[in-house]
Design a protein that fits this description.
The complex is a heterodimer. By secondary structure, chain A is mainly alpha-helical. Helix content of chain A is about 70%, strand content about 0%. Chain B has a domain at about 65-250 and about 280-295: MetI-like fold. Helix content of chain B is about 80%, strand content about 0%. The chains are: A mainly alpha, B mainly alpha.
């Protein structure tokens, strides 16, 4: 009797410790990056491009990386959104249902979701060379869009699946076609979930470095067109952390802090927006 | 009539988009296979996998140190992450007050969203010095850039995926099962250990497999702390050189040597194949739990 209680008590202590370890690791990561990164942030850092090459010293900031990352992530998300929405709708039981094609798609999208981003990077680079493209903003947007695709589809599909069949059936009963039902009823009902999916994919896209390592190049300038090479925050962290110059390392810490803040803010915004739009959902 | 037509056209577009995204993964496999066929045809597979000489300029491509490096880093990460994640998930689902459970979910989501390079920065700033000190306790002098540092950083990165999948699995165990066990006089812990965990086991295994496949392909964070020395690590304090780091460091600069290019894409193909197999396994595990619950 006593041993049983003792075993439970011991495991309970371990379980609580494990939960604290998980929560603690998040706070540690955020704490360390902000502690190092915030002091490095000033107006010059975020409003100037580097003046003396990104891994040599000299003054200047990381404007090139901030702007580049925003271009890349917005472009990729805008590109992935329509495709993802179409796929997420098609995977509903109104369309593909339990057909072999629906199941096959779900399976292959699951695998795609797990493909490491470095594989996207290597594959994207191969295709780029094959097509005779140069490392550019456009190539980066394309690769990131492919990376975001399975993430967005999975989240959207789940959100859309939650829409109750009564609502859909009422709409069909009123004589709306499948597409009209999907567009006017289902998508509106699932709007909070769809927004969350888009922001989730945006956050993943802006933070990923391995997939754009070979496809975007890196430059001190702001890109003037889709065919110019472009800098990005994750690669700014990666390239600038490795230099022996203290002021360049400061730029790496600042980039990491900005990246972290953007990602956390995106996550927070998706929560707030989802709550706000929940009001309009019929339950 | 126009509405019908619109419906039809929309369906066509959906089908097209779905078809494209579904074959994407096979396109990637086919592309990598085609590009790595050059090295697969010129070198015997046994030499590629078992040789430890990596001299691409001399045409020698032994992946052994990189495979072992990947194995060590992933194994350390899983050894750390599995017990922590399983314990935390059991606590959250079975014991924790609902307010704590509600609080932890967004925290785990936030952890999942942190970019790999940010983990890398933390690894360089905190874990690498820590490992260096730890090694000194054992009387070993290292820089701290080691497979252990890579494993620790990676463990934190796979927390969210293992926790969220196994959380869902535990939640899907019906409450009737718990109540039946409790009413037979079993304690809470006995119920968790012998009843809930037994039903959920295949699902937890699936969560671990998914975590493993995520850990395997993770590139940037590991690359920044693991040391990148192409030698077989002999202890956890030795530097290693996992496959993703190899691709990231060497690809893009050696395009002039076709065999080198082919070798690196073979490395990417190896990662992809393991990820593919892991996904199939995890799927089988999850469908088994469905069978068990409806018995």
């Amino acid at each position: 009797m006593n041993r049983r209680k003792l075993e439970e008590a011991a495991f309970k202590v371990l379980m609580i410790a494990a939960t604290f370890a998980v929560a603690g690791s998040l706070f540690a990561v955020v704490g360390i990056v902000l502690w190092k990164g915030l002091p490095a942030l000033d107006l010059a850092m975020i409003t100037q491009t580097p003046k003396g090459g990104y891994y040599l010293g000299k003054e200047g900031g990381i404007l090139n990386a901030i702007v580049g990352s925003l271009y890349l992530a917005f472009g990729a998300t805008a590109l992935a959104f329509p495709v993802s929405l179409l796929v997420a709708l098609f995977l509903q039981k109104d369309y593909s249902g339990n057909s072999w094609f629906g199941n096959f798609s779900r399976f292959s999208l699951d695998v795609l979701w797990g493909v490491p981003s470095i594989v996207y990077g290597a594959f994207g680079f191969t295709v780029m060379i094959f097509l005779g493209m140069k490392a550019s903003l456009l190539a980066g947007i394309l690769v990131l869009a492919l990376l975001e695709l399975p993430i967005m589809i999975r989240a959207m599909e789940e959100a859309i699946r939650m829409v109750s069949s009564e609502i859909k059936e009422s709409s069909y009963a009123l004589g709306l076609t499948r597409f009209e039902t999907m567009l006017k009823v289902v998508c509106r009902q699932a709007l909070p979930g769809i927004l969350t999916a888009v922001l989730l994919a945006f956050g993943r896209g802006i933070g990923d470095a391995a997939s754009i390592l070979f496809t975007t190049g890196y430059t001190d300038q702001l890109p003037a067109s889709l065919f110019d090479p472009v800098a990005s925050l994750p690669l700014a962290v990666f390239f600038q952390l490795g230099t022996p110059f203290a002021e360049v390392q400061q730029r790496a810490y600042a980039s990491a802090a900005i990246l972290l803040v953007v990602v956390l803010a995106t996550s927070l915004a998706s929560r707030l927006l989802a709550n706000k739009f929940m009001k309009y959902v019929v339950r | 009539m126009r509405r019908k037509l619109k419906d039809l056209v929309a369906r066509r577009f959906m089908l097209l988009a779905t078809f494209f995204s579904s074959i994407l993964v096979f396109l990637i496999v086919a592309g990598l296979l085609q590009r790595s066929s050059l090295i697969l045809l010129t070198k015997p597979i046994s030499e590629l996998i078992l040789s430890s000489t990596w001299r691409p300029l001399a045409g020698e491509f032994g992946f052994y140190p990189f495979i072992i490096g990947t194995f060590w880093v992933t194994a350390i990460a899983m050894a750390l992450a599995i017990p922590i994640c399983v314990l935390a998930t059991v606590y959250l689902v079975e014991y924790a007050p609902s307010r704590l459970r509600e609080l932890m979910k967004p925290l785990v989501d936030l952890l999942a969203g942190i970019p790999p390079v940010v983990f890398g920065v933390c690894g360089v700033l905190a874990i690498v010095p820590l490992v260096k000190k730890l090694a000194l306790l054992f009387g070993i002098a290292t820089t701290g850039y080691s497979v252990l540092a890579g494993g620790i950083v990676l463990a934190v990165m796979v927390f969210p995926i293992i926790i969220s999948v196994s959380h869902e699995v535990l939640r899907s165990v019906p409450n009737e099962v718990r109540e039946a066990s409790l009413s037979l006089g079993a304690t809470k812990w006995q119920t968790v250990k012998h009843v809930v965990m037994r039903i959920a086991f295949p699902g937890v295994v699936a969560a671990v497999i998914l975590g493993f496949s995520r850990a395997l392909g993770e590139t940037m964070a590991v690359l920044m702390v693991v040391g990148n020395v192409p030698k077989v690590p002999l202890s956890v304090f030795d530097p290693g050189y996992p496959l993703p780091a190899l691709i990231a460091n060497s690809y893009g600069e050696m395009m002039s040597i076709p065999l080198y290019d082919s070798a690196l894409l073979l490395a990417a193909l190896m990662l992809l194949v393991v990820v593919f197999v892991s996904n199939v396994l995890a799927r089988m595990m999850v469908s088994r739990i469905g069978v068990m619950m409806h018995r």
